[in-house]
Amino acid sequence: MKIALLGYGRMGQTIEKIAISRGHDVVLKIDKDDTDYDITVADVAIDFSLPSAAYGNITNCLNNGVPVVSGTTGWLEKYDDAIALCKEKNGAFIYASNFSLGVNIFFELNKVLAKMMGNLKEYNVTMEEIHHTKKLDAPSGTAITLAEGVIENNSNYNAWELDTANSETSIPIVAKRIGDVPGTHSINYASEVDSINIEHVAHNRQGFALGAVVAAEWLSKDKTGVFSMKDVLGL
Ligand SMILES: NC(=O)C1=CN([C@@H]2O[C@H](COP(=O)(O)OP(=O)(O)OC[C@H]3O[C@@H](n4cnc5c(N)ncnc54)[C@H](OP(=O)(O)O)[C@@H]3O)[C@@H](O)[C@H]2O)C=CC1
Ligand SMILES: O=C(O)C1=N[C@H](C(=O)O)C[C@H](O)C1
User: Fold this and answer.
1) Is it true that the peptide bond before 182 is cis, omega within 30 degrees of 0?
2) Which CATH number goes with the domain that contains 146?
3) Angle (CA) 183 130 204, round 5°
4) Segment holding 190, helix H or strand E
5) Ligand 1 contacts CB of residue 7 (under 6 A)
6) What is the ipTM, given to two decimal places?
7) What positions does UniProt annotate as the active site of this protein (predicted)?
8) Pick from 24, 155, 156, 174: CA 20 to 30 A from residue 210's CA?
9) Are residues 193 and 119 in the same domain?
10) pLDDT surpassing 90 at residue 165
11) Based on the domain organization, do 176 and 191 belong to the same domain?
């Protein structure tokens, strides 16, 4: 498979190593200053760029008939437009706030726990995410997906807020930036008498990168439509 890497930073470079180890060719490595390139030389594109760049990268792929996998976070105000374009062009697109197998299992665990806690009003939920100091967006895309998972499965909550919740129905997400932490997410339900905590800790970026390559392999096999990692992993 010929892969275009849109964004050749920490994730782009990790993805390159995994893609090559799985027998793929990396035919484009695009960064900020690379504006004049032909995306159609690739069978599939993988975008891990910047919040400000992702939408342009995705629309370039969809307008040129190249299936695209995006892991960039912090651009989701334009997600519905990307979906509409994908449908209009009969293209293929996957966005995931987190491509690792472990986090995608954690997403499902979070939903089950949220449902179980729905009738227990004595517990209050809080979330925390910890990432490296170079991260541009807060809260993380993964934390937003986790909060949405609670809201969809627990009628006690209908919104999330960064740092402090201003109402009982809002989930506070505390975002910490420490050293080179790859990504830690925890969800805590606390009552006066006890607490329940679930946590996912990424030890490095390999899990994110492997998931993105597996998603690209899956998407490039004659798929059309908008998909998620649940489709790829069969969860
Ligand atoms: N979904 C997931 O599983 C994961 C998602 N992420 C997300 O992926 C994104 C990238 O993370 P990370 O690799 O750590 O970030 P980096 O800052 O290390 O890499 C981003 C790269 O994008 C480049 N870039 C800037 N503008 C463009 C453009 N127009 N087109 C293509 N590339 C461009 C930057 O180049 P330059 O340096 O020249 O500006 C840089 O090399 C973030 O949004 C992060 O949150 C991260 C890990 C996992
Ligand atoms: O910026 C990162 O590094 C990460 N970003 C993603 C997010 O915002 O959730 C995924 C992962 O946690 C690493």
Assistant:
1) no
2) 3.30.360.10
3) 25
4) strand 184-190
5) yes
6) 0.99
7) 131, 135
8) 174
9) yes
10) no
11) yes
